[in-house]
Design goal:
By secondary structure, the protein is an alpha/beta fold. The protein is built from 10 helices and 8 strands. It has one domain: Glycerol-3-phosphate (1)-acyltransferase (3-Layer(aba) Sandwich). The two termini are 27 Å apart.
């Protein structure tokens, strides 16, 4: 444990270890992804997918290693028991910081299948990481604004089609399909601009998980409903690297999705869409109350 060092030095060490990890494992992912692209034979693709999965899980494990080395964080976690590494999970969480991703990967690595995040299309251009995410079959979405779609109606529905195709790929190997329902990180400015009815959350966007359920509903064991709370304030990634996050509280709940919500047409059926949104809003109301209780704990 290096947390006895000055926070700036801890941050520099953690950052260097993070960078080394990013350079090493994604480089291996890149090499295998080239082979996977050049040799598109089903038996070989399955073998390459297993190798890529092994690389990704070790990548996450190494992140957990430098976190243990440099951080002195008190973890209050409930709900990691009884998870199935061979199962399929739809995963949702509140989203406040880039730290959220490290938290979830640290807690869930090798307890459930590798989480595949729905990502903004621009992130595919991130050096090294973008290629790694692409090789690991992370879906890249455009998330056009309503104003853009009015001017370019031909783009409407394309993200949903990308989601559907991604979920079809996930059907062949146990997967955790992760979607931040808020679509972006929580800030006070975004909260005020949305006029969100929730105290600690932005408004949820249900279309992505509705389509995932439609495509893989018979595969998913359940919805993993994750709530992350930083009692001492939402940290930046740099503050986390510097060891300034002293407490993290996480609650993971396995929620059974009502069968009637697994196969409906979210885009085309207005009644189904309203019912699905109502279910998501109820989850969000309960999460908002849970966050409030965890902050007071």
């Amino acid at each position: 444990m290096l947390n006895f060092l000055p926070s700036l030095l801890v941050g520099i060490i953690a950052f260097l270890l993070l960078v080394l990890n990013v350079l090493f494992w994604p480089s291996l992912v890149f090499v295998v992804s080239i082979l996977k692209f050049l040799l598109p034979f089903p038996p070989l693709r399955r073998l390459f997918d297993k190798i890529l999965l092994w690389f990704a899980e070790n990548w996450i494990a190494c992140n957990s290693g430098w976190m243990r080395l440099t951080q002195k964080t008190s973890w209050d976690v409930e709900g990691v028991k009884d998870l199935n590494y061979r199962g399929w999970y739809l995963i949702s969480s509140n989203h406040q910081s880039w730290v959220d991703i490290f938290v979830m990967q640290h807690l869930l690595n090798r307890r459930i299948p590798l989480m595949k995040f729905f990502m903004k299309s621009e992130l595919i251009w991130v050096p090294i990481m973008g290629v790694a995410w692409w090789a690991l079959d992370f879906p890249f979405l455009h998330r056009h604004s309503a104003e853009y779609l009015k001017k370019h109606p031909e783009q409407k529905g394309k993200d949903l089609e990308i989601t559907r195709k991604a979920c079809e790929k996930f059907a062949h190997m146990p997967t955790g399909v992760m979607n931040f329902l808020e679509g972006t990180r929580f800030t006070k400015a975004k909260h005020d601009r949305q006029k969100s009815p929730y105290k600690y959350l932005l408004k949820p966007k249900a279309g992505g998980i509705a389509l995932a359920l439609n495509a893989l509903g018979d595969k998913f064991n359940c919805l993993l409903n994750i709530t992350i709370v930083y009692p001492d304030g939402i940290p930046t990634l740099w503050e986390f690297l510097c060891g300034k996050v002293k407490r993290i509280r996480v609650r993971i709940e396995q929620v059974e999705v009502p069968p009637k919500l697994m196969q409906g047409d979210y885009e085309g059926n207005e009644a189904f869409r309203a019912e699905f949104q109502q279910w998501v809003q109820q989850l969000w109301q309960e999460k908002d109350l849970q966050i409030e209780a965890l902050l007071k704990k």
